[in-house]
Amino acid sequence: MTYCVDFPEPGTAVEWSLTESGAEREPVPYRPRFYVRATGDGSLAEVAEAVRPHPAVTAVETERHRPGWRHDPTPMLAVEVTTPDAVTRLASTITSAGRPGEYRCFNVDLSRQFRYCVETDVDPTPARPPRVLRLDAPPIAESGLESVTATTAADGTHCFDGDPATIARGVEALIRETEPDVLRLSSARLVPALFDAVDGPLRLGREPGYTQLAAASSYESYGQVGHSPARYAVPGRVIVDAANSFFLRETSIEGILDLVERSHKPLQEAAWASIGNVFTAIQIREALARDVLVPWRSWRAEQFKTASTLAAADRGGFTFSPDVGVHEDVHELDFSSLYPNIMCTRNVSPETVCCDCHPDREDVPGLGYGICPEPGYLPDVLQPLIDDRDEFKRQLSAGEGDTEALEGAASAIKWILVSCFGYQGFSNAKFGRIECHEAINAFAREILLDAKATLERHGWRVVHGIVDSLWVTPMPDREQTDLDAVAAEITDDAGIRLEYEAAYDWIAFCPRRNDDAGALTRYFGKRAGEPVDETVSYKRRGIEARQRSTPPFIVDAQLALIREFGRTRSPAAVCERLRTFVERLQAGDVDPSRLAITNRVSKRLEEYTQSTTNVAALERAADRGLEKQPGQNVAYVVVDDGKKGRARVALPSEEPATYDADYYRDRLCRAAASVLAPAGVRREGIEAQLADRVDGSLSAFVTGKGSDE
């Protein structure tokens, strides 16, 4: 079976298939195609006459296809071209002719290997597990490679250092010797760096040379700046860029291979793809199987709504404000894949919500939207994912099958299911629709409110609830129905399984930093029946130990403070434990590498107007030829916050020997405040206790005063 595809010259594709002994190469004729639909006064005959002479066009034919889910087959122009790159160029020319929307193109912006697979009905799932060679290198400066560490499952670790040419030839020799199928790189920049290091040809693929598929770029999405690194390909091998692979970071190669089988995106494209990109590929396969073409620059107008309907519809999932404080005997209940199951059980799909064929139906609670009873395509896409994930989880619980493969596949599917709902409201979603997004939220709110009422009727108080999760504790002076029985009743009512997720000996819900209201996503607690092990027994969300910018030393300290709080429930004991970490900092007894802060760059260095530690780190990185682009991460250790400019910080690669103890003490106390805030202790009380050992009562913490006042 084909596992990657190369496009060496116009009109030709090369399929690479894995065999027991290695890989086979098969060149095949290939000419991609896209489709043009005329609307209004548009003329397909005029388009055909105009594009036929184009040197990239090999054929123009009239065919009939469906432009949407609720459309009959329509005459369209099928334009066949020499290369995948020619598709977008020609489509742009055609759509710019005539008035806006007069010509609409389909099957345009598909990634090139995925396009090949869906057009030729090729399954890119490898016939055997691919052999992986891992190549890791420190950040690559303008001066070139410093070292490369190579790791294989069979041969262990190989280290290459010296001048860049020696490193590159050593890596090439190892690749020839081990014949891997996948090159897992710490950064895709390794590819051009290895080729630039030598004079003459270099073979990282199964043939010499490499291709740059896309340049590096920065982008903004939902207010967050991201960075997409340059992408490269080598003949006959898959490149997986660990720095640009969400699925590799969150699952495994096995998890990505499960998505390959579902989406028919070959391994290299599935590895760099976003969750929405893979989900869209699964949708596209379903659409093309039903002869529905893929719209380019999808745009669907939001239907007219009254002000009252808009106010009711423009809300997210339901949340119960957490009861700030420390609670004992708490149980967590979660609806299994709530939003995907709503789509499946309520037949919510872009073409079924507010359908034209049933205008009098009012199925969506609070909104009055109708839902067509004819089966929608979205449940057909999602139900196999839901069923397979449930089966993988069952096999894991029963100890059946390959644990690593099952965990990877289950995790990969989880991320698709988590994102499929939000993607319905995404403006660039190929088949999304905002009314679909609103309907799902409306059903979810009703389900959560009904669940709360049922739990309270059976003697359970909800101390927190958010979207699909509920935390409950027994009501005082009330008899409680067994939670399993209550969950079964709620499951029957909702038609979606409510699962018992966990029990907690105690759980603490944090207030917001600037007032006493509960923070929706900041809590921590100890799971019941588990040994005291911070990596297993404590669940934590939103606090510093879960934030990627937090230095490892602060993470370890906060976890130790949580353990002390759980053991003693004493703010004084927590502050005494905090004191040991403060003393270590002030004595210079902390490895500076464990104080590295990692932050995301939001703009270019020259665009910053304030002199922050982030800017100082960017300046130092630029000095070393490691300029950071918006969306990339920069790591640094604060060595003297009282200085100005780049002297304030040092990069981890500079191996700093000192750090600013007062700066990190402030961050340490901030982390301690998150632990003690649920007990009513704020930063002022912590500072007072650190300064005065005399009065350790809770009143001293709350007022911030010692016993001598």
UniProtKB/TrEMBL annotation:
According to the entry, every stretch annotated as the DNA-directed DNA polymerase family B multifunctional domain falls at 285-677
Task: Tell me one GO biological process term.
Answer: DNA-templated DNA replication
Q: Name one GO molecular function term.
A: DNA binding
Q: What is its EC number?
A: 2.7.7.7
- Would I find Transferase among this entry's keywords? yes
Reactions performed catalytically: DNA(n) + a 2'-deoxyribonucleoside 5'-triphosphate = DNA(n+1) + diphosphate
Pfam families under this entry?
DNA_pol_B
> Which SUPFAM superfamilies does the entry mention?
DNA/RNA polymerases
The UniProt keywords, alphabetically, are: DNA-binding, DNA-directed DNA polymerase, Nucleotidyltransferase, Transferase
Q: Which residues form the signal peptide?
A: none
Q: Give the enzyme's main class according to its UniProt record, as a single word.
A: transferase
Record keywords: Glycoprotein included?
A: no
- PANTHER family tied to this protein: DNA POLYMERASE CATALYTIC SUBUNIT (PTHR10322), DNA POLYMERASE DELTA CATALYTIC SUBUNIT (PTHR10322:SF23)
The name of this protein is DNA-directed DNA polymerase
